Amino acid sequence: MPILLAIAMISLLIVLTVGWVLLSVFGAMEDTSHSGVYWALLSIGSTFILLLLVGVVLYLILSIKAINLTRRQSNFIDSVTHELKSPIASMKLYLQTLSRHQVDRQVQADFHRSMLEDLERLDHLINQMLETGRLDAERSDDDLENVELAGLLRDCAASVCMNYRVPADVVRFDLQPCIVLAHRMDLDIIFRNLIDNAVKYAGATPQVEVSLRPTGNGRVIVRIADNGRGIPLHLRRKIFGRFVRLGLELEREKPGTGLGLYITRTLVRRLRGSIRVRDPDHGQGTVFEVQLPGRPESELPPQSV
User: Of the candidates 82, 101, 134, which is a domain's last residue?
Assistant: First the structure.
C-alpha cells in the first residue's frame, strides 16, 4: 500500500508540473478563446493538489503504523529471545551441576522439578506461537461441545497457581453453573491466559477474584479481577494488539511475548463474544470482563439414556 500510494503521488506531481506549464502558457495569452481551458486546468490542478495533500497524510499515517509495527516486532523478538534463553540457561546450569558434583536426593528432586517447570515454560511459549499462526485458519463447528464453565475456570486457576508456586486460595471464586457451546481448548486458552495475567500482575499480596454468572439474555459473563497497578484508560485497547507489551522489553521483570491477550481477544470474537477492561468496584487493579453466548446449567435439556 505505501508503494502504490507513493507511485500515485509521484504521478500526481508530474501531472501538476505539466499542468502548471500549461497554465503559464494559457495565462500569458490574452486571447479570450482560451479562458475556458485556463479555468478548467486550474480547477483540475486544484483538485490534484488536494488529492496530493490527502496522499501525503495517508502516507504519514501508514509510515507511523509501520514504525509502530517494527517497534512491536522488535519487542517481540527481544521477549521471545529472553523467554527462550532464560529456561535454557537455567536447565544448562542444573545439568552441569548434576554432572560435575555429587548432590543429595532432595537437591536432585528440586533440580528436576525446576527443569520440568522450565520445560513447561518453553512448551507454553511454543504453543502460544503456534496458536497465533492458526488463528486465521477456518475452524469446523462439528466438534463443538457443551462446556461446564465453572469447572473449567477452577482447573485453569489451579494450573496457574501451580506454575507460579502460589497458594490455591490466591484465586477466589464466585461461580454459578453455566454452559457454553464451544471448543473446550479455545475456552481453556482464553481463561488460562486471563488468570495467568491476573496472578502475574497482581499486587505484592496477590488477590484474584473470578466470578461467573448468566446475564439472562442468552449470554454468560466472566469477570477476572486482580489487585495490581491497573492499566491506564488510554492503553486498554492497545493491549489486545499483536506483540504489544507495555513499557520497554529489556526493562521488564515479568515474562511474556505480547501474544496472550491478542490470542484471547481473537478467540473470544470467534465465539461471538466480547472482552473489555474495566476498573474494579473498589481499590486498584484490573478487571477483564468476558461475555460469551451461554446459559445456566439448569436450562440444559436432560440427556436421554
Answer: 134
